[in-house]
Structures are given as C-alpha cells and as structure tokens.
Design goal:
The protein is mostly helical. It has a single domain, classed as Up-down Bundle (de novo design (two linked rop proteins)). Helices cover 71% and strands 3% of the residues. It is built from 5 helices and 2 strands; from the N terminus they run ααββααα. The chain has helices spanning 2-18, 35-38, 50-67, 70-93, 100-127; strands at residues 44-45, 48-49. The chain has a two-stranded antiparallel sheet with strand order 1-2. α4 packs antiparallel against α5. The longest helix has 28 residues, at 100-127. The protein is elongated, with a radius of gyration of 16 Å. The model has no long low-confidence stretch (mean pLDDT 91).
Length: 128
C-alpha cells in the first residue's frame, strides 16, 4: 500500500516536471513548493528526471512485496533512503527550498525501509 501511495506522489512530481509553469497544489510560498525540485536544479539526476528514480523504486518495491522478495525490498528501500537523504540535503542546504511532496515521498520511503528491516529480522528469527 505504501508503494502505491509513493507511486501516486511521484507521478504528481513527474506531472509537475513535464507541465508548463502554473499554480501548483504544493506551492505554499517561495520557500515551500515543488517548483525548485521539479523545475530547478534538482529536476534531473544524471540527465534523467529525478522523479523517474522514485517511480522505478516504488514499482520495484510493489512487485517485490507481491512476490515476497524481502531482500529486494530492503535493497531498494536502502537505496531509496540514501537517495532521499541526498535530495533532502540539497533541498535544505543548497537550494534552500522544501518540496512538500518530496518530503511525503521521503517519509514513505523511510517507513518502507524500517518495515523492510523488520521483515528481514522476522525471516531470520523464523529460520532459526
């Protein structure tokens, strides 16, 4: 369920990326908005729209959840957490702007990461 919410949030960010400038649902003020992340310096990572990384990650987590691939969930969630921490750092200290949708994605990825650790521990306890 969390991955589906994450997919929805990332799809919104990608919509913002591809749409012409307009009033956004996540524009609160000049410091708290999605524009800096979807249209500014953070819009692309290695030449690819940053939202695509999140979309791929959440899709892999969704598939891995359905297949019960706990190590895949943990691996992708770990990468996702590190990627999100990088984005958060850049938002706060480089562009000095906060994207509310990005924060929501980061919270979801953090929860998935914690749950993936719990799933791996549960699997290890059952096998002993």
């Amino acid at each position: 369920m969390l991955s589906i919410i994450g997919i929805g949030l990332v799809l919104y960010l990608l919509y913002q990326y591809y749409s012409p400038p307009h009033d956004s649902l996540c524009y609160i003020n000049s410091t708290i908005n999605c524009d800096a992340s979807t249209k500014g310096e953070l819009a692309n990572t290695l030449g690819i729209p940053t939202g695509f990384y999140g979309l791929i990650g959440y899709i892999i987590i969704l598939i891995a959840s359905l297949k019960e691939w706990k190590r895949v969930i943990f691996g992708v969630a770990t990468f996702g957490m590190l990627f999100c921490l990088r984005i958060t750092f850049l938002e706060l200290f480089v562009i000095k702007s906060i994207c509310p949708i990005c924060i929501a994605c980061q919270i979801i990825m953090f929860i998935i990461f914690i749950l993936s650790i719990w799933l791996l521990k549960t699997k290890q306890e059952l096998s002993h």
